[in-house]
């Protein structure tokens, strides 16, 4: 059974840093395209970042230069390092798996999602 | 990259059909068959309902169907049921920033 469990959220002051984790089970993280998607309170979904099976990484303009996506294949865990946090980064952060596995390219849709972890940036 | 445009809300009585539109541009919806739809009941994570415009994942009722014409994709729910009440989001590949979501539509079952 595929399962994604996020952790690491919490209350952080503006300018601070936080690292989110997403523990995966039931599939091989390194063979899949994995993303972070966030949802501000009462707002819509916003794609944040993706790491390809080959290791390439991409970011939304709103977080580029501040956030870093990575993975630990041995721990089957996806990470999101968030630096220079701003009030507008306040959101529930979901990790999500792309529906296509392998190296031919992502399917650009998400077939499994975690339950999310809340990040609140406030003084 | 601006969000894809969806109506804020649609409603229907049980048994009726409702359609949610998702309007993008030639840089996303109009040029790629990479449109997906997600259902999100309050307080829960999104769930994949449609991928690649028309495909339904295993376990999704065939009451849900997707289509596309030009720069606009659509999700139709036929035979509306109380359990279909939720927020719905479309998403597409975009040449400018890889992924873009729609603004979201609240479906209310009257």
Can you give the helix content of chain A as a percent range? under 10%
| Structural class by SSE content of chain A | mainly beta
Overall 3D form of chain B: globular
Total strand segments of chain B: 9
Work out the radius of gyration of chain A: 14 Å
CA-based shape of chain A: globular
Largest Cβ-defined interface: A-B, 21 and 25 residues
Q: Give the topology string of chain A: H per helix, E per strand.
A: EEEEEEEEEEE
Relative strand content of chain A: over 45%
User: How far is the N terminus from the C terminus of chain B?
Assistant: 35 Å
Oligomer: heterodimer
Unreliably modeled segments of chain B: none
Q: What is the number of helices of chain B?
A: 0
Mean pLDDT of chain A: 95
For the biggest sheet of chain B, the summary is: 6 strands, mixed
Count all strands of chain A and give the number. Answer: 11
What is the radius of gyration of chain B?
13 Å
Head-to-tail CA distance between termini of chain A: 40 Å
Folded structure, characterized:
The complex is a heterodimer of chains A (123) and B (110). Chain A has 123 residues and is mainly beta. In chain A, the strands form two sheets. In chain A, strands 2, 4, 5, 6, 9, 10 and 11 form a seven-stranded mixed beta sheet that branches. In chain A, strands 1-3-8-7 form a four-stranded antiparallel beta sheet, with no helix packed on it. By secondary structure, chain B is mostly beta strands. In chain B, the strands form two sheets. In chain B, strands 1, 3, 4, 7, 8 and 9 form a six-stranded mixed beta sheet that branches. The mean pLDDT of chain B is 96. The interface between A and B is medium-sized, with 21 and 25 residues.
Give the arrangement of secondary structure elements.
The complex is a heterodimer of chains A (123) and B (110).
Chain A: E1 3-7, E2 10-12, E3 18-25, E4 32-39, E5 45-51, E6 57-59, E7 67-72, E8 77-82, E9 91-101, E10 110-113, E11 117-121
Parallel strand pairs in A: 2-11
Antiparallel strand pairs in A: 1-3, 3-8, 4-5, 4-9, 5-6, 7-8, 9-10, 9-11
Chain B: E1 9-12, E2 18-23, E3 35-40, E4 47-50, E5 64-69, E6 72-77, E7 86-94, E8 98-101, E9 105-109
Parallel strand pairs in B: 1-9
Antiparallel strand pairs in B: 2-6, 3-4, 3-7, 5-6, 7-8, 7-9
């Amino acid at each position: 059974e595929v399962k994604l469990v996020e952790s690491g959220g919490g209350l952080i002051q503006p300018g601070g840093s936080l690292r989110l984790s997403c523990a995966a089970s039931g599939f091989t993280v390194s063979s899949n395209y994995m993303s972070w998607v966030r949802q501000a309170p009462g707002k819509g979904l916003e794609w944040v970042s993706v790491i390809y099976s080959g290791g390439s990484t991409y970011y939304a303009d709103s977080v580029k230069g501040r956030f870093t996506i990575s993975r630990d294949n041995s721990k089957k865990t996806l990470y999101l390092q968030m630096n220079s946090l701003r009030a507008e980064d306040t959101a529930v952060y979901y990790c999500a798996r792309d529906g296509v596995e392998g190296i031919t390219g992502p399917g650009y849709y998400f077939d499994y999602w975690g339950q999310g972890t809340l990040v609140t940036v406030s003084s | 990259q601006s969000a894809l445009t969806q109506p804020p809300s649609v409603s229907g009585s049980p048994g009726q059909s409702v359609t949610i539109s998702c309007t993008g541009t030639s840089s996303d919806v109009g040029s790629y068959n990479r449109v997906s739809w997600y259902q999100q009941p309050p307080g829960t994570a999104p769930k994949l309902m449609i991928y690649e415009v028309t495909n339904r994942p295993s376990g999704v009722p065939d009451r849900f169907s997707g289509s596309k014409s030009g720069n606009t994709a659509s999700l139709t729910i036929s035979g509306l049921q109380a359990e279909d009440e939720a927020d719905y989001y479309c998403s597409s590949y975009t040449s400018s920033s890889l992924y873009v979501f729609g603004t979201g539509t609240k479906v209310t079952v009257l």
